[in-house]
Design a protein that fits this description.
With 383 residues, the protein is mainly alpha-helical. It has a domain of 249 residues. 77% of the residues lie in helices and 0% in strands. Helix 7 packs across helix 9. About 3% of the residues have low confidence.
Length: 383
Amino acid sequence: MDFLSLFLLDFVKQLQSPTLSFLIGGMVIAALGSQLVIPEAICQIIVFMLLIKIGLTGGIAIRNSNLTEMILPVLFSVVLGILIVFIARYTLAKLPKVKTVDAIATGGLFGAVSGSTMAAALTLLEEEKIPYEAWAGALYPFMDIPALVTAIVIANIYLNKKKRRAEGESLSKQESLSKQESLGKQPVVAGDYPAQQDYPSTRQEYLSKQQGPENNRVKIWPIVQESLQGPALSAMLLGLALGLFAQPESVYKSFYDPLFRGLLSILMLVMGMEAWSRIGELRKVAQWYVVYSVVAPLMHGFIAFGLGLIAHYATGFSMGGVVVLAVIAASSSDISGPPTLRAGIPSANPSAYIGASTAIGTPIAIGLAIPLFLGLAQAIGGN
């Protein structure tokens, strides 16, 4: 009963959070037929500023960390961020009528990290007097950024393959129709056959026809390169590089950080209006997103907890650090993820991936995952 009341309190709290409340506000005004329009050029500027700030945050955190002590937890954080996207790609995307691109975007948001969920975990660790490394919070960008980059790249590969497949089917249909028309026009004498010009005359020609033209194959690296050069990842990686190799703290604190939440609220309003226009796509699959949002945070957290224990026994990584790793894996991004995925995977439905992560996933992570992994750490560590 305590868990249920705690979950409901967290659920209501998430509904009132700026991220979700502005998203819902956008959906409401769109449903009421409002003519409010925010120019796309303004949205692009907002997204650029948000992604630069996200990159700067990660770069500054990494630069101020002791990477030699962090090497195994950092490696596990990167692996977890990438793995969570693939889990969604091959579980959620396989459920009936769930669109693959929406599932990949959802995986990206669950692989990315919620700063508020991590802050809640750190506060509880301090209250319980469970020690953890000072740099544990800096694991954030090592899971967050790989998850978002992987989601965008995997989505682009999938969409490219889908496009090539559709073009190939269209071309084969056209060739079949033209062949039938040409055969139908050829005069045929009794006991004779129409001339067939399409039969291969050599084995090499036969093999080339069996394999199909080389340009029908999807080349992965150009898609990865195109994704990295796209506006979303370019802005985020630029911010990451500036945070790592420059000293941008003054402009970060005076400009990017104060504006971030205000700009994010405007973007959430826009995404809410976009989500309402596509709400019909979710009516037949909403139950699968609910199931995934309940199960995924705990599954991701248990995988991370197991990897954290390996680091604990191998390098002396603290049990408090193990809890932090598990909690950030169980969390889902409500800040960095939405603007990144909107820019990187514009065809994905925001009502699917934001609704699943923020409305359900975050309360599960805060209300269930944090006390669960805290209790496990205390049981194993003997605190």
